């Protein structure tokens, strides 16, 4: 089986650790764990590895976020990968930071990358893995928030989050969307936000003193 895992983000060093680049960060982590490196190809950076009997292609589009669909459509067709073997990894400010949510299909939630993919593929019937980035912005501040760099405490929590993301994608390839979705979403629901833990501990110590 061949799979295409597309992680969405914006190219350029200035975007490297911004919230909108969670998809890129997830694929970099997966590539590192799989001992492969990306090469520059048409419409994006590509890496490939074998997971048991499956060939997994990782795609980081170079088209910028709002044209991500062009890259995804091109590589699906070039590699002859069926739509049911596509997963898109994106950031989501509707979820608390550190929350993972896997779905078989769904709305774009206003995400420009997903809107582009829906348009280019003429469907929303593909798997997606959403990575929560929180919503710490005032009305009208959405764009600045998603394009801003992660906070220090978020950077500290990032390695564990990306490790969980890598495990979820691997399970999707090895065991299918249904089992991976159940496991991923259940585990994420049980895990407290890493940004809430320090404040809770601080509150508790304050009450004890």
Largest sheet: 7 strands, mixed
Task: Find the count of extended strands (DSSP E, 2+ residues).
Answer: 7
Shape: globular
Order of helices and strands: EHEEEHEEHEHHHH
Per CATH, the class reads: Alpha Beta
Low-pLDDT regions: 197-209
Give the second-level CATH assignment, the architecture: 3-Layer(aba) Sandwich
What would you say this structure looks like, in words?
- By secondary structure, this protein is an alpha/beta fold.
- The protein has one domain: Rossmann fold, CATH 3.40.50.
- The chain has seven helices and seven strands.
- A seven-stranded mixed β-sheet has the order 2-3-4-1-5-7-6, sandwiched between helices.
- β3 and β4 form a beta hairpin.
- α2 crosses α3.
- The termini are far apart.
- The C terminus is likely disordered.
Write the SSE topology.
Blueprint: E1 2-7, H1 22-33, E2 39-41, E3 44-51, E4 54-61, H2 68-79, E5 86-92, E6 100-103, H3 112-121, E7 127-132, H4 142-146, H5 152-175, H6 177-190, H7 197-208
Parallel strand pairs: 1-4, 1-5, 5-7
Antiparallel strand pairs: 2-3, 3-4, 6-7
Notable characteristics:
globular; 209 residues; single chain; 7-stranded mixed beta sheet; 7 helices; disordered C terminus
Give the structure's gist in a few sentences.
The chain contains 7 helices and 7 strands; from the N terminus they run βαβββαββαβαααα. The protein has 209 residues and is an alpha/beta fold.
């Amino acid at each position: 089986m061949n799979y295409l895992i597309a992680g969405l983000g914006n190219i350029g060093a200035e975007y490297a650790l911004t919230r909108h680049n969670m998809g890129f960060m997830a694929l970099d982590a997966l590539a590192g764990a799989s001992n492969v490196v990306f090469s520059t190809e048409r419409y994006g950076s590509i890496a490939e590895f074998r997971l048991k009997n499956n060939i997994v292609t990782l795609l980081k589009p170079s088209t910028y976020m709002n044209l991500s669909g062009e890259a995804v459509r091109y590589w699906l067709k070039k590699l002859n990968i069926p739509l049911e073997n596509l997963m898109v990894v994106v950031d989501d400010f509707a979820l608390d930071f550190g929350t993972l949510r896997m779905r078989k299909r769904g709305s774009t939630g206003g995400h420009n990358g997903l809107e582009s993919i829906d348009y280019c593929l003429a469907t929303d019937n593909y798997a997606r893995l959403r990575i929560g980035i929180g919503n710490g912005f005032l009305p009208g501040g959405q764009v600045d928030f998603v394009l801003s760099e992660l906070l220090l405490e978020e950077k500290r929590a990032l390695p564990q989050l990306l490790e969980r993301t890598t495990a979820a994608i691997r399970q999707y390839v090895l065991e299918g969307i249904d089992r991976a979705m159940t496991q991923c979403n259940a585990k994420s629901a049980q895990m407290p936000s890493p940004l809430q833990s320090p404040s809770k501990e601080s509150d508790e110590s304050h009450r004890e003193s």
